[in-house]
Amino acid sequence: MEQEATEKVHVLIIGSGPAGYTAAIYAARANMKPVLYQGIQPGGQLTITTEVENYPGYPDGIQGPEMMIHFEKQAARMGADIRYGLATKVDFSTQPYKVWIDEEKEIHADAVIICTGASAKWLGLKSEQHLNGFGVSACAVCDGFFFKGKEVAIVGAGDTAAEEALYLSKLCSTVHMIVRRDQMRASKVMQERVLNAPNIKVYWNSETDEILGENKVEAVRIRNVQTSETAVIPISGFFVAIGHQPNSEIFKGWIDMDGTGYILTQPGTTKTNIEGVFAAGDVQDKNYRQAVTAAGSGCMAALDAERYLTAKGLA
Fold this sequence. Notes:
The protein is an alpha/beta fold. It folds into two domains: about 5-120 and about 245-310, 3-Layer(bba) Sandwich (FAD/NAD(P)-binding domain), CATH 3.50.50.60; about 120-240, FAD/NAD(P)-binding domain (3-Layer(bba) Sandwich), CATH 3.50.50.60. The chain is about 25% helix and about 30% strand. It has seven helices and 19 strands. Strands 1, 2, 5, 6, 7, 8 and 19 form a seven-stranded mixed beta sheet that branches. The longest helix is centred in the C-terminal third of the chain and has 21 residues, at about 290-310. The radius of gyration is 21 Å and the shape is elongated. The chain starts with 5 loop residues before the first strand and ends with a helix. The model has no long low-confidence stretch (mean pLDDT about 95).
């Protein structure tokens, strides 16, 4: 049976990582009848993560995809209407707000919670994708623990790369830092800390040629961009720290963002510049980017939405 082209919902949640599912759990329990569209990657970034050891309540750790199935099942059990589909366009000019799904279906919503997350930027190497989760990672805080006492490499030159290199230096025997230019973009204080760390070795004017290993990372081949000389460094882990891209493109022109596309929320809340539109998780958080902080902000968004709807007499 074909879906109707237009549908009116009370609360629309866009995205399905820890923020989206947590917002759905709270909104459903508050009888707000939330409809959640899962987006292009149901479960978000955690579905491409293997072991998750730092989420409270899982003493033995859990696989990222399995954890997201738990989140989804809990949201569904509370009564959230969870659907496949990608938000492709919005119109926040008048209430109820309009959101188009897969460029066809038009949803009208009293309140919208944006939980579209962010995507790690990758180098674009085949070996990087092949070994993702088998020694290749875009999050040192998430995965550094698995490489305790081992040698690892990290690529990047900004504050995030410097921060993650320092974090890894406390766990790993040696951190090989690959920097494309003859200087870093990181702040002076972060650069000084990196250069003063005894077990961080910086490779200037270098780029990653290939990550080596069949079923796990065994080495990285780097190339000097000036001389074209290559060198192979034996490592167990390879971290990509060249930034994240918030998935906020469709909200441009409606929602206030910073220069890199992260949605701006009022401090201490999930409120955006448009009343009745809220943002939670990595799409508005460039600092922490953890499952537990995303889940916490999803809870906040549902509570903010409930208060908004009550004040408007729509709850």
